[in-house]
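Entry 12.
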Amino acid sequence: MEEAEFDGRGSRIRWTQTPGEEPARVYVHGLGAMSSVYHAHIASRPELAGRRSLFVDLPGHGLSDRPQDFGYTLDDHAGALAAALDVAGVTGAELIAHSMGGSVAVVLAHRRPDLVSRLVLTEANLDAFPPPTAGSSGIASHTEDDFVNGGHARVLDGVGPLWAATMRLADSRALHRSAVGLRHGSRPVMRTLLEGLNVDRVYLQGALSGDLDGRETLEAAGVRVVTVPDAGHNVMFDNPDAFTKAVAGAV
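Predicted 3D structure (tokens):
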């Protein structure tokens, strides 16, 4: 496990990594998740062997610190991720990022283009104010104090065992602020940032999740949108073969 200070007050963002050739692949989890849980089984596939791989836990999640005075906005998370990559000596990385992690990766690629050479986004949130059915909207519908004082436990009861297994490890206040930050989005919004990036961009949409809004506009901007069969939001679990091919660049 390695770590980097990210807030000027001693708080640490942490990651684990496997050695290998550059450019590194950096795996970034979604809201209430952990990178190693969602991606280690993919990075270990033979098709991806030999590359340096980092599994980063965003602030408030997994192994990373959870300062109570941190904002947990998308910009805040992107800044913390940049601190981790700087300490790790990573430049020109391939970011493989899921859901909220995809939003953070887009913001990072916009702010620090030196750190990113390629994006593989899995159902990343591209727009502010996601639908009420989205997990972030459900969390953000609580007040922060209500979520900390019982709302977190109620949400855990309803999200299913897979997500609950990692969400229960996330700090309640950090989880709520992250959901609110995701709901507010970035400025400009993530979709606009993604369309303007000058890096290789792949967007994976699970077929079971329905059509991707604005697909034609993304494709016109050079984003390769791939509909993954037999998969929902968690493509890396539902169809790991297709996910691995996308990470390997075999789309």
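Annotation: The chain has a mean pLDDT of 97. Residues 74-88 form the longest helix (15 residues).
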